[in-house]
Amino acid sequence: MYLELSLFSYIIDRIFGEFKYIKHPVMFMGDFIKYFENKFYKDDVFRGGILTISLLSIVFLMVGTLVYFIDNTFILAIIGSTTIASKMLYASIKDIIENPSNIKYLVSRDTKDLSSSDINKASIETYAENLSDGVIAPLFYMLLFGLLGAFIYKAINTLDSMVGYRNTKYENFGKVSAVLDDISNYIPSRITALIIAILSFSYNAMINIKNYGHLHDSPNAGYPISALAGVCDISLGG
To answer: How far apart, in Å, are the Cα atoms of 232 and each of 108, 166, 205, 208, 235?
Structure first.
């Protein structure tokens, strides 16, 4: 297990957050996905599978090379911190309190007619989901598999966020990415829910996890959302 690497990576992210003057690794992944889609898009599962395999192979080779040549935990932790979004997530949600209209940057739904209560609920849901995707999951895979695990997870998560939609364009092309994302988030999402409940000393959160976690459209998002709903004693997720 890579406890030291995971701990240092988390601390670096909490202190410094995103390194704004360096292009984020996820942006490079996004650039590749856009390039592949523009050049090779076809509405079938096979073509989307090739995209997934291609990106994961590139990430595996590049990060594997870094790990092979860099034998310094602190340097690897600096790199690893880019897979974690704890400070940025907190800042984004805090910004909504001061600028409610900015909720449009955090959610995919139409926000024009949302009430202040709806905005608050959307912010809490976003925080719960992204606490799992942006913090707990990369740390989970880093702890188990080191830097390589964290970056492979981020690649899967980035693929899902760009092509893993159930619509006419991506239903088939994004199928492999979406399924991989569901699988990779299965354990971290439930760990996130338990962490929320335990750290909040909330029995209500535990009950919510059991009763409502599986009711969400997503096989994973419902667990941290239901936990946070229990802590806040509100109704979330629809």
So the answer is: 23, 31, 9, 11, 9
**Helices (runs of H) and strands (runs of E) counted in the chain:** 11, 0
Reference 230, options 117, 90, 128; nearest CA is: 128
End-to-end CA distance of the chain: give it in Å, rounded: 38
Place of tokens 């709903």: 229
Model pLDDT for residues 74-117, shown as the tens digit of each residue: 999 999 999 999 999 988 888 887 787 777 777 766 666 677 77
Tokens of 161: 């966020």
pLDDT tens figures, 36-46: 999 999 999 99
Read off the DSSP letter of residue 221.
T
Helix, strand, coil % in the chain, rounded to nearest 5: 75, 0, 25
- CB of 114 within 8 A of CB of 87? no
Q: 22 and 81 in contact (C-beta within 8 Å)?
A: no
- d(Cα 5, Cα 142) in Å, to the nearest integer? 8
Q: Rounded to an integer, what distance in angstroms lies between the CA atom of residue 50 and that of residue 36?
A: 10
pLDDT surpassing 90 at residue 205: yes
Please indicate, yes or no, whether the overall pTM of this predicted structure exceeds 0.90: yes
Angle at 113 between CA 103 and CA 87, to 5 degrees: 10
pLDDT at 95: 83
Length reported for the chain:
238
Dist CA 137 CA 157 (whole Å): 10
